[in-house]
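Lecture notes, continued. The same structure-token format from the folding unit now serves as the input rather than the output. Read the line below as a description of shape only.
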């Protein structure tokens, strides 16, 4: 099983999208600053995830969520969270 996830930086409010086979470990790695690509943006909050049965589906979904349409999908999918997060 694989997960596609979206993190929101509590430092700069930007999103990071990735995939993993161990979601809990991966989020922890990001928040501990163990990933070069996100180290300067910690801490993160997990705001969305999906699971896939195989790696190729997860990679395809990650690619989509990183596209313009995918970013719109995520913002629409978590719009209540985003509106409550700003209060």
């Amino acid at each position: 099983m694989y997960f596609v996830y979206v993190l929101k930086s509590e430092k700069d409010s930007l999103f990071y999208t990735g995939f993993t086979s161990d979601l809990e470990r991966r989020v922890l790695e990001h928040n501990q600053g163990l990933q070069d690509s996100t180290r300067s943006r910690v801490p993160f909050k997990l705001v969305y995830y999906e699971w896939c049965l195989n790696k190729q589906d997860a990679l395809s979904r990650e690619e989509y969520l990183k596209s313009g349409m995918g970013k719109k999908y995520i913002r629409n999918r978590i719009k209540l969270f985003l509106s409550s997060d700003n209060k």
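Point for the exam: Residues 75 and 83 are 10 Å apart (CA to CA).
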